[in-house]
Design a protein that fits this description.
The chain is α+β, with helices and mostly antiparallel strands and 349 residues long. It has two domains: 1-198, no CATH class; 200-278 and 290-349, no CATH class. The protein has helices at residues 2-14, 19-41, 67-95, 117-140, 144-152, 154-167, 176-196, 215-225, 229-235, 248-251, 316-325; strands at residues 44-48, 54-58, 201-207, 240-247, 261-270, 279-281, 287-290, 297-306, 332-338, 341-348. A hairpin with a 5-residue loop joins strand 6 (279-281) and strand 7. The protein is globular. The two termini are 31 Å apart.
Length: 349
């Protein structure tokens, strides 16, 4: 409930800035849920029976969960999912969509906006939500296949429900590119669990506060992305990087590589002061900002990374912290390729 209230307060601050804010704050909520889910999931282990079925056992007592305990956990998780997400949708509708006129269901093509950084954001959101849900279903003790499919499809379902709400708002519309990104994010989690029973490639996020260097650009950034760190974190696509982080030891188990070592490929963009072009207009259509001279460009990164989930510890609090941080890219040096040139960053956030 605290997450939902925080979500509502944040929407009141930024409700005039664009639909990406609402969707990404949903991601923050599910990331917080993911933290608590993972912590609970660590209280259970899986024991292999003689018939190759997996049975959850309690780590401290080594007692096998009874069917009644499994049933009770499943019921609790199902109720929590339905009640929690319903409350979020109701709150989102009241705090966000109710401020804009409704319409019949329609589509909107936003595929070219923000050099697709927002689409990668949808991919990340769906992946993290699916991962969080899957870990909670793991805790219940249901079979491997059930927790993969129930958890794996959750991110897609959560994001699609919001996309449908967009379809009934005159301000936006149902976006097939957003929908496709949501499918891809959930699919990545499901595919890895089916193939490896592990997330060898984790999708991560990083952010740095941009200083645009002069008053007109800073003013435009404040209008588009907000003035606070929280607003910029969610809305400033120039300052976001999304990463695919591959754990090397999981791909080369016979090697002497440390279990925590990963390599990450990142994507971002810069020079964007509008969704499609660097032009701003008022309600009457008059141009109030025109910086088409600023180049909009993509950025590709290569960097080492740390898989924090592979660091062994018996301390629950430390495991909790490492789980929190596993959804975000650890700051390291990086190699950037953009505008046809390479650039080295001593430390990339």
């Amino acid at each position: 409930m605290g997450c939902i209230l925080l979500h509502m307060q944040f929407l009141q601050q930024v409700k005039s800035e664009g639909k990406g804010v609402a969707k990404k704050w949903i991601l923050v909520i599910f990331t917080l849920l993911f933290i608590s889910m993972q912590l609970k999931a660590q209280d259970s282990l899986l024991k292999v029976n003689t018939d190759d079925t997996l049975v959850p056992i309690n780590k401290s007592t080594q007692k096998i969960l009874t069917p009644q305990q499994v049933k009770k956990r499943v019921r609790g998780v199902a109720i929590a999912n339905v009640a929690g997400y319903s409350a979020i949708l109701v709150g989102l509708n009241a705090a966000w969509y109710a401020n804009y006129p409704r319409s019949s269901f329609h589509f909107f093509d936003d595929n070219k906006e923000w050099l697709q950084v927002d689409k990668v954001g949808h991919f990340y959101s769906s992946y993290i939500e699916s991962r969080s849900s899957m870990e909670l279903w793991r805790w219940t003790g249901i079979s491997r296949k059930k927790r993969i499919w129930l958890g794996g499809l959750s991110g897609f379902v959560y994001e699609s429900a919001i996309e449908i709400l967009d379809g009934f708002s005159t301000q936006w519309g149902f976006s097939w590119s957003d929908f496709s990104a949501n499918v891809a994010g959930s699919s990545l989690l499901i595919a890895q669990e089916i193939a490896w029973d592990d997330q060898r490639i984790k999708i991560k996020f990083s952010f740095h506060k941009n200083n645009y260097g002069n008053a007109p650009l800073d003013k435009r950034a404040d209008e588009l992305f907000g003035k606070t760190i929280a607003q910029r974190l969610i809305k400033d696509y120039n300052a976001q990087t999304y990463w695919a982080s591959a754990n090397l030891k999981s791909f080369f188990p016979a090697s002497n590589l440390p279990a925590w070592l990963s390599v990450s490929v990142g994507y971002g963009a810069d020079g964007m002061f509008g969704a499609n072009e660097n032009v701003g207009k008022d309600k009457e259509g008059n141009i109030t900002f025109d910086r088409k001279d600023i180049q909009r460009f993509r950025q590709w990164y290569l960097a080492p990374d740390i898989d924090l989930t592979k660091i062994k510890t018996n301390k629950k609090g430390i495991r909790f912290l490492l789980t929190v941080l596993s959804a975000f890219k650890f700051p390291t040096p990086s190699l950037e390729f953009s505008k046809g040139k390479f650039k080295v960053h001593v430390l990339h956030f």
